[in-house]
Amino acid sequence: MGTVSFDFQNETVIVTGGSSGIGRAIALRFGRAGATVINADIRSDPKDKDETQPTHQKIKNEGGTAEFVETDVSEPDELRNVIGQAREYDSVDIMVNNAGWFTRAPFLDVDSSEFRKIHEINTAGVFFGCQVAAQEMIKHGSGGSIINTASISSTHAQTDQAPYDSTKAAIQMLTKNAALEFADHGIRVNAIAPGHIATEFGSGAEKKEESVEAGDLTKSIPLNRPGYPEDLDGTVLFLASDNAEYITGETVYIDGGWQTY
Questions:
Q1: 3 state SS for the chain
Q2: pLDDT of amino acid 205
Q3: Choosing from 164, 228, 246, 253, which is the catalytic residue?
Q4: Is pTM beyond 0.85 here?
Q5: How far apart are CA 139 and CA 126, in angstroms?
Q6: How many CA atoms lie within 13 A of 132 on its CB side?
Q7: Which residues are CB-contacts of 53 (< 8 A; sequence separation ≥ 6)?
Q8: Integer Cα distance of 173 and 150 in angstroms
Q9: Which residues of the chain carry a pLDDT beneath 70?
Q10: What is the Cα–Cα distance from 226 to 240, expressed in whole angstroms?
Q11: Cα dist. 50→91, 199, 200, 205, 213 in Å?
């Protein structure tokens, strides 16, 4: 089958949560496509197994331009600081709001602090990530692209995941809201919705990795395997590219056909 290559030379990309998993794969792919990549994460060291080199350093070692900015996406001022760093490279052209948190607990057992934490990271992090990026893009006057990480949980409830599922449902609607309001400024806003992805993520990471090794995540997936971070990055680059210039407000499901059941 054919292959696709992208060219993002002279463009600056911010990826939140780019140190590990899905965010790392996206950041590395943008780096290989020539973009300047800013990884905005709470830590630079990857959590992925067999990965020891920080994302920004790996991009540099491969001949690209990248930097790390320590960022807690639940704090809007820290997101604004990342935008300030992007100005060192002229402006931000692409914003990938990927950072997130995962927790699993029965609905009746979730306490208020746990609920607030996941919404501050997942929901508010995406809302203000969209806001600060759009404000900068409008100021710069050259449009841009924003891609948010939603989930199959945006539309499908899963047991013991009410706090997480509700954040991902919110992200899907925020994507539509932002697409509607930013369209006049030449800013497109879309989302990807990963299915069962084998990656370290939040408090359920170890159980998820064990499930992948046991083959549990392949159940009810028509393509008969779990997804991996590298299954997602091509879609993100497509949505950020001029090839998708008439696509906005959409959520692209990348789940191996899981939602067809």
A1: CCCCCCCCCCCEEEEECCCCHHHHHHHHHHHHCCCEEEEEECCCCCCCCCCCCCHHHHHHHCCCEEEEEECCCCCHHHHHHHHHHHHHHCCCCEEEECCCCCCCCCHHHCCHHHHHHHHHHHHHHHHHHHHHHHHHHHHHCCCEEEEEECCHHHCCCCCCCHHHHHHHHHHHHHHHHHHHHHHHHCEEEEEEEECCECCCCHHHHHHHHHHHHHCHHHCCCCCCCCECHHHCHHHHHHHHCHHHCCCCCCEEEECCCHHHC
A2: 40
A3: 164
A4: yes
A5: 20
A6: 25
A7: 46, 61
A8: 10
A9: 200-219
A10: 25
A11: 34, 12, 12, 15, 15
89 is catalytic: no
Q: Kindly state the tokens that stand for 160.
A: 């013991």
| 59 closest CA partner among 81, 90, 85, 26 | 26
- Return the number of other C-beta atoms located less than 10 Å from residue 160's C-beta: 15
Structure confidence at residue 259 (pLDDT) = 85
Q: Is the dihedral of CA 170, 76, 178, 11 positive or negative?
A: negative
Say how many residues make up the chain: 261
For residue 194, give the nearest of 163, 224, 172 by alpha carbon: 172
